[in-house]
Design brief:
Number of domains: 2
CATH class of the largest domain: Alpha Beta
Order of helices and strands: EHEHEEHHHHHHH
CATH architecture of the largest domain: 3-Layer(aba) Sandwich
Distance between the termini: 35 Å
Radius of gyration: 19 Å
Strand order of the largest sheet: 2-1-3-4
Number of strands: 4
Shape: globular
C-alpha cells in the first residue's frame, strides 16, 4: 500500500496506479521434507492493522484459531519514505522477534539487494531467518490449508465445492473493489480517476444486488471472498469516500451492504481486528501527496454494532 509521491514507479504514463507484484512466494507445507514445514511457534506475521491486505490475514489467523501457533506483530500505522516501522504505541509495538526497527530490514535480510517496496503482510520464518511469503492471497490459503492442523474450529475459507466460482469472484473483487479504490485514489489524471471510481461503484451496485437475496456471497456462511470485501467496506466511509474521492455514495447509503458489513463485523473475533484509529491515521498522515496538511478527520461516526437483520437470509 502506498501513495503516488512515495512510489512513482507504480504510476503509468496515463496516470493509472499499477500495483507491484509480491516478491516472496514460498509455501508452508504439511510435507515434513519441505523447506518450510508446518510447525507451531516457528512462523511470525508482521502486519499493519491499517492495511486491508494485511487485515485479511489477521482475520484468517483469528478465524482458524491460530493465534497461539503463529505470532503477530503490528507496525506503526504511520509510514514514511523508510517504510513500515516497529515502534511502541497504541495497538502497535517494537519487533520482539528480530529487533528490527523497520520492516525493510526483513526484506534485505531475505534477499540481498532487494529493490521493491516493503509491503505487509509478511510471514517470517524464525528458523531460517527469512521471509517465506508476502502475498496475502497465498497466506490466507496457507492459514486455511496446511496451518489448519495447528488451529481449531470449523471455519473453511476456501470450500472446495465452490473453488472455481470463488476464484472468479475473488479476482473480480480484487480488480474492481479492493484495488479499485486505489486506482481511483492514486490516479494522477482526471480520466484515470474517473475510470477507477466508476468501476468501484459499478461493482458495489452488483454486489449489493447479489447480497439482497443471500446472507453472504456464497450463502449462509462467510468464506474468504466475504472477508476480502469486508476489508474494503469497513474502510470505505472512513477513508476511501473522502480521502480517495470515491464519493458517489457511502456504504451507509447501501442498506444491503451496510447490513452485510455489520453482520461480518459482529462475527466472533472480528471486531478486535478492526482499528479505525490506525486506518485513518495511516491514510490521512502517510499519503501527504493526497492530504498535504496531514489533518486526520474526526468523523465519520460509524456504528458497526447496529442490528442488521440478515440472519433471515440463507
Amino acid at each position: 500500500m502506498g501513495g503516488t509521491g512515495q512510489f512513482p514507479d507504480e504510476i503509468s504514463a496515463a496516470g493509472e496506479f499499477a500495483r507491484q507484484e509480491d516478491a516472496f512466494r514460498a509455501f508452508v507445507s504439511a510435507d515434513g521434507r519441505a523447506d518450510f514445514p508446518v510447525e507451531a511457534g516457528r512462523y511470525h506475521l508482521y502486519v499493519s492493522l491499517a492495511c486491508p491486505w494485511a487485515h485479511r490475514t489477521v482475520i484468517a489467523r483469528q478465524l482458524k484459531g491460530l493465534t497461539a501457533a503463529i505470532g503477530l506483530t503490528v507496525v506503526d500505522p504511520v509510514r514514511d519514505e523508510r517504510g513500515w516501522a516497529f515502534r511502541d504505541g497504541p495497538g502497535f509495538s517494537r519487533d520482539p522477534v528480530n529487533g528490527f526497527k523497520f520492516l525493510a530490514e526483513a526484506y534485505h535480510a531475505s534477499q540481498s539487494g532487494y529493490r521493491g517496496r516493503y509491503t505487509v503482510p509478511v510471514l517470517w520464518d524464525r528458523r531460517s531467518g527469512r521471509i517465506v511469503n508476502n502475498s496475502e492471497d497465498d497466506l490466507c490459503r496457507m492459514l486455511d490449508g496446511p496451518f489448519a492442523v495447528l488451529g481449531h474450529g470449523d471455519t473453511v475459507l476456501f470450500p472446495p465445492a465452490i473453488e472455481a466460482e470463488h476464484r472468479r469472484v475473488a479476482a473480480d473483487l480484487y480488480e474492481r473493489v479492493n484495488n479499485g479504490v486505489y486506482r481511483a485514489g492514486f490516479a494522477t489524471t482526471q480520466a484515470a480517476y474517473e475510470r477507477g471510481c466508476r468501476d468501484v461503484f459499478a461493482a458495489l451496485d452488483e454486489y449489493a444486488a447479489r447480497l439482497a437475496t443471500r446472507r453472504f456471497l456464497f450463502g449462509a456462511r462467510p468464506v474468504e471472498a466475504d472477508w476480502r470485501l469486508f476489508c474494503t467496506l469497513v474502510r470505505f466511509d472512513a477513508v476511501y469516500h473522502g480521502h480517495f474521492k470515491c464519493n458517489l455514495r457511502r456504504i451507509v447509503d447501501y442498506p444491503v451492504l451496510q447490513g452485510y458489513l455489520c453482520d461480518l463485523y459482529q462475527q466472533p473475533g472480528i471486531a478486535g481486528t478492526v482499528n479505525l484509529d490506525h486506518i485513518k491515521r495511516h491514510y490521512y498522515v502517510t499519503h501527504d501527496d493526497i492530504n498535504p496538511t496531514r489533518i486526520v478527520p474526526l468523523g465519520p461516526d460509524l456504528d458497526f454494532t447496529a442490528p442488521h437483520g440478515r440472519e433471515r437470509l440463507g
